[in-house]
Amino acid sequence: MTTYPVLPIIMPTDLKGQKNGYVVSAVLRTIQKPSGQLEKHAATAWNCLQLAAYFNNLTLNQVGAYRNYAQQLALFNARYSTTDMGRKPQVTRIWQGKKYYLKPGMSPCATPGNSDHGWGLAIDVANCSISSPICKWLLGDGFATCEALKYGFTWAVSDPKNPNFEPWHLQYVTGDTWTPAVLDLIKVFPNLVA
User: Fold this and answer.
1) How many C-beta neighbours within 10 Å does residue 47 have?
2) How far apart are CA 55 and CA 133, in angstroms?
3) Element (H, E) at 30
4) How far apart are CA 13 and CA 96, in angstroms?
């Protein structure tokens, strides 16, 4: 069975004193395709990962990056209900002392104020399903050849059978330290630094 690399997030120091979903704009950098924002170290790593994909004849875009608190709340309310609507397998969250159930046909998300998107450290890759070329390239053969990991990103859940697994959800995990792959691309393309 294929497992996806998962490492704990090392928080960049510029997030110290920040609050999830309320990160100040000075800490965030704009990324493209479509436009969004990530914490500045994560943004640079993402720019490098996008270029690496391009060199491999792949298009790496995103459909979700930094989410402020209001965006997290709206997403959570759209996806969860206090009524179990029969989704199988069921995914639940506890928020404000109540149990919430994931609605059928919806993907999981964190409770408001607890999302890695709220730190600018998570990104959702466009067109990334388990069998898609971009996901296969990002994963490689696991830890040893994982393109995502080479650039400082891992998944949040390793087991595709876990109902919380999302193949498109990557999180930046290397804090203030860029990986050798990121540093190598920055030497050649200094404009990648966000």
Assistant:
1) 23
2) 14
3) strand 28-31
4) 29
The tens place of each residue's pLDDT in the chain, 194 residues long, gives 689 999 999 999 999 999 999 999 999 999 977 789 999 999 999 999 999 999 999 999 999 999 999 999 999 999 999 999 999 999 999 999 999 999 999 999 999 999 999 999 999 999 999 999 999 999 998 777 899 999 999 999 999 999 999 999 999 999 999 999 999 999 999 999 98
Distance CA 149, CA 115 (A): 20
Six-digit token string for 25:
């704009």
| Residue whose C-alpha is closest to residue 77's, from 35, 124, 128, 111 | 111
Residue 90's φ and ψ, nearest 5 degrees, are: -80, 140
Distance CA 49, CA 137 (A): 11
Closest listed residue to residue 90, CA positions, set 100, 98, 75, 76: 100
Tell me if residue 168 falls in helix, strand or coil: coil
Rounded to two decimals, the pTM is: 0.95
